[in-house]
Structures are given as C-alpha cells and as structure tokens.
Specification:
Layout (H helix, E strand, L loop, with lengths): L11 E4 L24 E4 L5 H14 L9 H4 L1 H19 L12 H4 L2 H12 L11 H16 L4 H26 L20 H14 L4 H29 L1 H9 L16 H6 L7 H10 L1 H21 L2
GO molecular function, one term: metal ion binding
InterPro entries: Haem_Oase (IPR002051), Haem_Oase-like (IPR016053), Haem_Oase-like_multi-hlx (IPR016084), Haem_oxygenase_CS (IPR018207)
EC number: 1.14.14.18
C-alpha cells in the first residue's frame, strides 16, 4: 500500500473496484488495477483501529457545532477548522472547475459547505463572528496543503473532495439529529446547517453518481497512486486537528475540579455506588467516581464529549456503509 512517509498515520488506503468495473485483477491491490479510475476506499487494518476511532471522534465532536453559545469559543475549534478547510477547498475547486482531471466532480450547488458553516458560526458567535474565529496551527497546515495542491497538482483535489464530502453525506443526517438532541438546538436547523444539503434529494443516489464520475476520470496508474497517497495525507491532517481538540478536552476535568463537585443531593442510596465502599475504606472520603462522572457530564463541554461518543458510532457506521 502506498503511504506518505512524512504523514505517520497507520491507515491503509486502496482503490476499490466497483461491481460494474471488470478492469482490475485483484480487489485491494493497487498494483494490479486496470486502467479505469476506481473509487477511493478507506480501509483500516486491526492495528489502525485506534487511529480510525480518533478520526471518527474528530468528525463527530470537533466537526459538529454542538455546544451552547457561552461555551462555543472554547469547544468550537473543529467547526472553525471546518470553515477554513472548506473555504480553501472550495476556492481551489472553483479555480480548477475546468481542469479535465477534476471538472466532472465539480458540484458547487450540491456540495459546497462554506456558506452553511458561515451561518452556523454566526448563530453561535453573532454577526461579528469573523472577528472572533482564528486559524489554528493544525488547520493552517491543512489549508496550506490544499492551496498547494490546487496550484500545482489539481488532480489531487479528488482525494480531498471525496474524503470530505462523501463522509459528510453518509453520516450527515444522523449527526445532525444527534447534535440537535444533545444540546437542544432549534429544530429549525440553526447551528447544524453544515449537515443540510438542500440541493441533494437522495444522498445515496448522489454518492453513486459521484463514484461513477470518479470511475470515468481519465487518469493513469501513477496519478491514481498519488490520489491514494493524498487521501492518506488528508487523514493525517484531520488527525492533527483532532489532537488539538484532544488537548482542549483534557481541561474539562480540571475545570470541574476547580469549580468544585456539586454536593450530593440526597437522592438515591450513595452506598450502592460501586466505588463508594472502596473509596471509604481507603480513607478517601465519600467522593464517588460516579459522582465525578455526573459532574463532568453536567459541564457543558462534557456534554459535547458525551454527544461525540454517541456520534462516533454513527460516524463509523456511515463510513463503512458508504
């Protein structure tokens, strides 16, 4: 499998043969692919499950604008990252819309997300959101790479577009509902415009069309391999952004402790807590791990992490069912 040396992400990529394409001798072996362009299929080995899980957490958590307004400035790194990422991607797609190796995949009315993300950011930040949001270091690297590809190797935009848009279409509606329920966002769609594709009536049919267009692109074997490598690199950038978010998430427990645990409300039998007896016997007092967990989940940022765990399962299923 081709792997980008400077992007240490333990994910393996191959080109998948669609049933209607008889040109390949062996499924999953890029070196034996026939002349037809085959859709990129992200595959993970057993060793890469942890990295894959991290990526899906990133999609479900940092990509979902599921946080209350007063805490958005802390937990919105992912949504802001998406705005800058899609702005760069769509700028380069617009500039290369007539490039023959990418033009068939240009669907601005159906897919473009920049304006939808701008609406979400305005909902959370207010009218002056552009003066508040900042480009993080990890996102800057991703954006710079997209611009580099658009200027010098526009055919590689195929990898970035497929990785982003097809995943959003696959899990978008599920994640949208998770977001609305988790933090009681308006049912009218404010805050989750990113996952609303008004000009696509059937996600399944559109994805079939998109893959068909990919299969029909006139690309040689070397270009196919470079697209696979670029998809691997795109995953690496997403993982870097996830790591940034992870560092933010690690502050949740400290904030809860600094603010003090909520007092035991007297409801229920505290002695039934599975951690209570051991904690008391160890002389540590009556503070219970379950008590800590409830305190974290009452914290607004903790609620975001909780919703991310639920969305993680939806995200994984969406990608594997694409």
């Amino acid at each position: 499998m081709p792997v980008v040396p400077d992007c240490a992400v333990p994910l393996q990529f191959s080109l998948r043969v669609e049933a209607c394409v008889p040109a390949a001798e062996t499924i999953g072996n890029v070196n034996k692919l026939g002349p037809s362009l085959l859709c990129i299929q992200i595959q993970t080995s057993d060793r890469s499950n942890a990295a894959a899980a991290g990526y899906y957490t990133h999609r479900a958590d940092c990509l979902l604008p599921t946080m209350k307004k007063q805490h958005f400035n802390k937990t919105s790194l992912g949504t802001v990252a998406l705005y800058f990422t899609y702005s760069a991607l769509e700028e380069e797609m617009d500039g290369n819309r007539d490039q023959p190796q990418f033009a068939p995949l240009y669907f601005p009315e159906e897919l473009h997300r920049r304006e939808a993300l701008a609406k979400d950011l305005e909902f959370f930040y207010g009218e002056n959101w552009q003066a508040v949001v900042q480009l993080s270091e990890a996102t800057r690297k991703y954006v710079d790479r997209i611009h580099e590809v658009g200027r010098s190797e526009p055919e590689l935009l195929v990898a970035h577009a497929y990785t982003r848009y097809m995943g959003d279409l696959s899990g978008g509606q599920v994640l949208k509902k998770v977001a609305q329920r988790a933090l009681k966002l308006p049912s009218t769609g404010e805050g989750v415009q990113f996952y609303t594709f008004d000009n696509i009536s059937s996600a399944k049919e559109f994805k079939q069309l998109y893959r068909s267009r990919m299969n029909d692109l006139d690309l040689d074997q070397e270009t196919k391999l470079r697209i696979v490598e670029e998809a691997n690199r795109a995953f690496g950038f997403n993982m870097e952004i996830f790591n940034e978010l992870e560092r933010v998430g690690k502050t949740i427990k400290d904030e809860v402790l600094d603010g003090g645990l909520p007092e035991y409300d007297g409801k229920g039998d505290l002695s039934k807590c599975p951690y209570y007896a051991a904690k008391t016997a160890a002389g540590g007092g009556s503070a219970c791990a379950c008590h800590m967990a409830m305190a974290v989940l009452r914290h607004p940022t903790g609620q975001v992490i909780m919703s991310a765990c639920i969305a993680l399962l939806a995200g994984v299923a969406a990608w594997y069912l694409m």
